[in-house]
Design brief:
Elements (H helix, E strand, L loop, with lengths): L21 H11 L2 H10 L2 H10 L5 H10 L3
């Protein structure tokens, strides 16, 4: 999937590495991603990693955290 520049406005999108910058990508998509981007993140990263990033994130809005905790329950 091609990363949407508007979502990653604060960095050069060409320098984003899917593995190295997983936390950054997950946080951006969790808070501001479109449906197709959310599905892409859910397929790309393990639930274990997603849970860890969501739980430890200091930048996600509380509503976003609560939603993702529910989404990743199973």
């Amino acid at each position: 999937m091609k990363l949407r520049p508007e979502l990653f406005w604060d960095t050069n999108i060409k320098n984003i590495d899917l593995r190295k910058h997983a936390q950054y990508i997950i946080e951006k998509v969790a808070d501001f991603g479109h449906d197709n981007e959310v599905r892409w993140v859910l397929n790309l990263y393990s639930k274990k990693l997603l849970r860890k990033v969501i739980a430890k994130s200091r930048c996600l809005r509380p509503e976003t955290k609560a939603l993702w905790v529910l989404l990743l329950k199973k």
